[in-house]
Amino acid sequence: MAELLSDRESKILGIIETARGKPAKFRDPHITMSHGAGGKASSSLIEGLLVPAFDSPSLDALADAGIVEIDGLDLALTTDSFVVKPLRFPGGSIGELAVNGTVNDLAMAGARPLALTLSLVLEEGLPAEALRLEVEAIARAAREAEVQIVAGDTKVVERGHADGMYICTTGLGHRDPRATLAPSHLRPGDRILLSGTIGEHGTAIMLARGELGLDADIESDTCSLWPAVDGLLDAAGEGLHCLRDGTRGGVASVLNELARASRVAMVVREAAVPVQPVVASAAEILGIDPMYVANEGKFLAFVEPGQAEQVLAALRAIPGGDAAAEIGEVKADPPGMVLVETAFGGRRVMDQLVGDPLPRIC
Amino acid sequence: MRFVDEFRDAELGRAVAGEILAAVDPDSHYKIMEVCGGHTHSIYKYGVDDLLPPNVELVHGPGCPVCVIPMGRVDDGIALAHEPRVIFTCFGDMLRVPGSTQTLLDAKAEGADVRIVYSPLDALRIAKQNPDREVVFFAIGFETTAPSTALTLRRAKTEGVGNFSVMCSHVTIVPPLRALLESPDLRLDGFIGPGHVATIVGARPFQFLPDQYGKPVAISGFEPLDLLQSVLMVLRQLAEGRIEVENQYARVVPWEGNLRALEIMSEVFTLRPHFEWRGLGFISQSALRISDAYAEWDAEERYSVPGVRVADPKACQCGEVLKGVIKPWECKVFGTACTPERPIGTCMVSPEGACAAYYNYGRLAREREVA
Question: Which of B46, B66, B109 is facing A344, going by the closest CB pair?
């Protein structure tokens, strides 16, 4: 088809592709909400400002956790902040989210979670009862995830500064020797597995804010993913190439990030992606695509083709994993791009969003 | 989802695609414009164009109401948003449309109180909840959304809500279509008519397309099967030498439109003598302003906005891209001065605009086209 393109068109396509291949530049005059949404604006902040500033190979890998080697022991280290509004929502609360979110960053790096630190930023006027509930939620979630809270800090800020409370965590884990997982380890032919239905957490939060006048029975999916990862490492070992949970920006953003990190393409079969009917309906009314909606207990696994079946069986064997599915395949071309075969039978590009999905007028 | 999934049935889609293939002359090239941005969105979302034969090309039209708002007007909105006591409300997709120096999202980051609403009635509710603030609604959209703005204004008047006003940037669909069709270099064979606009104005206003310009049109719904069927209707008209307005979306669109909606629109709005469209220039009688009876709720009367016209760069060739005269990459500023990060014309502002799609999907889009 190349010969059908004129010289000028080829040249212009070349210029665009060169520009796309370069790391995103951070050129915005100030931070907007888009920079926190996990899309292109977030990438420009991370890859354009933060990663280049610190000159660290571990950061360059853009993984969920960094690896520190001490006397031959691989430790995984991660940190996270939680600023969710409202503090409590159907299916969970900020405290539970803080533990599970941190533990899951470790699990996605193939590391068994060991310990957490906990830093609480509390707003003047926060009801003690609300704080007590979150402390209990943190303790319960930590027990369930079998991690210890080993250090902590508290700060109080003036009213109006912290939406009730913010939680910052650090997580320490032990990298499991059964597999070496990395965003750059995807290979053409790898199968893309999804651990369950998508979009529940983000939809639950949107509805819990009460601004949309919509009511539906949707609960956040927040949970610790280590048991599932443990099962997968047993089932596939080195056949497992990468894991990533579909948090902010949803499954679509994760697929795009990994396609770029590994310089591969992905083809996703839309009809194979499990979505609860109630989430699909809410998304339909709001005009957003569940593929871009946040999850807190679902992940993607990239697996050697020969082991896809075993891994899928392992995923389905985990309690709550019945809906796990193979949703697509890694390809060689065009590198950095995610294609979708729509349920209707067409193809399209599933791009990374700039920021949050905004409701459409037209 | 009942009553939705039926219109997304892949097997039926393949069947209609087969009928389309049978209806085209393999030696002809067909260019059909879908006028409405909502159609463009559905076409991308479901990959509808992927099911068409390579010689049937869909040209994305001027019907994205967000993208056609000119920079100067976005600047006016941003200036209002920065007014100290103002809560500025608008539809979500307006937030990222660039003005001359910033977007509403930037204004929000600088401290302006900008809020997304799903309906103008939500904006009115915010006004009632915040009596010590001034609430401005940035009203955009074609005839589809104008009735809800009109209804909100009538309610504000009835209830005497004094701290609410509307910055009216509603536009109408027929004038830009005429402007495109008046062009001697037009290369379009037919039209997919805007189903939501037609729900309000009816199918009848589109009769000028066959009568005066000899172009077939099918008013279409928004599900992928609707769109495929509409393409088939236009192609069959061309094959059979019929030129008329067909109503594919008859389950929603009456020939005469929604008379109550039209009535309230004529009470609350009057035509502006002319209005500037991003990328298309000034088009006479193509937009609505708030009528004198409702002047008290007109933000343009209440506040002094800069009102500075920011000209599209001369090199912008959106008009020619829309007419199908040139390809996006043939525009002088494509990919250099005009990119999705810093768009100039309407075709680049919307991610579904012809230029943005070509910029983002480049070779892939071309593979499909020349396959």
Answer: B46
pLDDT at A3: 47
> What DSSP state is assigned to residue A124?
T
Chain-chain contact of A361 with B92 (C-beta, under 8 angstroms): yes
Q: Is the pLDDT assigned to residue B370 strictly greater than 70?
A: no
Does A8 reach chain B within 8 Å, measured CB to CB?
yes
Q: Cα angle vertex A210, ends A204, A213, to 5°? A: 105
Q: Which of B177, B179, B185 is nearest to B324 (CA)?
A: B185
The answer to whether A298 and A246 are in contact (CB under 8 A) is yes
Taking the CA of residue A37 and the nearest CA in chain B, the distance in Å comes to 13
8 Å CB contact of B364 and A29: no
Mean pLDDT of chain A: 92
Model pTM score: 0.91
Structural domains in chain A?
56-175 (3.30.1330.10), 191-349 (3.90.650.10)
For A335-354, the pLDDT digits (tens) are 888 999 999 998 888 888 87
Sorted by where each begins, the domain ranges of chain B are 5-62+185-198+208-236, 71-173+257-302, 318-370
Do residue A13 and residue B13 have CB atoms under 8 angstroms apart?
Answer: no
Q: Which of A13, A30, A337 sits opposite B110 (nearest CB)?
A: A30
DSSP-derived secondary structure letter, A162: S
Q: Does A73 touch chain B (CB under 8 A)?
A: no
Give the Cβ contact number of residue B30 at 10 Å: 21
pLDDT, one tens digit per residue, over A295-308 is 999 999 999 999 99
Mean pLDDT is lowest, of A22-31, A328-337, B25-34, B337-346, for B337-346
The two tokens of residue A240 are: 């497992």
Among partner residues A1, A346, A362, which is closest to B367 by beta-carbon distance?
Answer: A1
CATH 3.40.250.10 fits B5-62+185-198+208-236, yes or no: no
Does domain B71-173+257-302 correspond to CATH entry 3.30.310.80?
A: no
Question: Which of A124-138, B92-106, B294-308 has the least mean pLDDT?
Answer: B92-106
- CA–CA separation, B250 and B286 (whole Å): 26
- Residue from B161, B164, B215, B217 nearest B194 by CA: B217
Give the percent of chain A with pLDDT over 70: 97
Q: How confident is the model at residue A334 (pLDDT cuts 50, 70, 90)?
A: confident
Q: Which of residues 143-202 of A touch B (CB under 8 A)?
A: none
